[in-house]
Amino acid sequence: MITKDKKVRISAKAIIIRNDRLLLMRARDSSGVYYLLPGGGQKNGETLHEALIRECIEETGALVEPGEPRYIRDYVAKNHEFFSLGGNFHQVEIMFKCKYIKRFRGGTREPDKRQTGVSWIALGKLEGIRLYPSLLKTLISPGGLLRGPVYLGDCN
């Protein structure tokens, strides 16, 4: 969700690797299909782990067990290609390595507005897709090793 609000939004994102595949949300815009890590905004009174579990169920139907934070990034919209959608938008994303537990039965699915589905993408094929943040293509090895610094800066 992109808003023109001047507050900083905190978002928990899930890095879910299973059988050498990464679970991603699939979405579409005027340029075509793109992919994002599942997850979203933390609600007042909710821990980051609680937000992550809720968001993964809502967006992918997957029940996950959050681990430790692995990457943190700022996303300051005015510095990137989507600035016209929310030039004042600033989000801090904390990306957690998560264990896939099972497909969650029940509960409410609430996909994002642009979301068209979910996909398990082979790690070796990440380079060939439009993925945000795109830096993940170089940070996640084909073997599932998460490399690089924890703080990624303002990147897209």
Give keywords.
single chain; 156 residues; mainly beta; Nucleoside Triphosphate Pyrophosphohydrolase
Topology readout:
Blueprint: E1 8-18, E2 21-29, E3 32-36, E4 39-41, H1 48-60, E5 62-76, E6 90-103, E7 115-122, E8 131-132, H2 136-139, E9 151-154
Describe the protein in words.
- With about 160 residues, the protein is mainly beta.
- The protein has a single domain (about 10-155), classed as Nucleoside Triphosphate Pyrophosphohydrolase (Alpha-Beta Complex), CATH 3.90.79.
- The chain has two helices and nine strands.
- It has helices at about 50-60, 135-140, and strands at about 10-20, 20-30, 30-35, 40, 60-75, 90-105, 115-120, 130, 150-155.
- Strands 1, 2, 3, 4, 5, 6, 7, 8 and 9 form a nine-stranded mixed beta sheet that branches.
- A hairpin with a 2-residue loop joins strand 2 (about 20-30) and strand 3.
- It is globular, with a radius of gyration of 15 Å.
- The model has no long low-confidence stretch (mean pLDDT about 85).
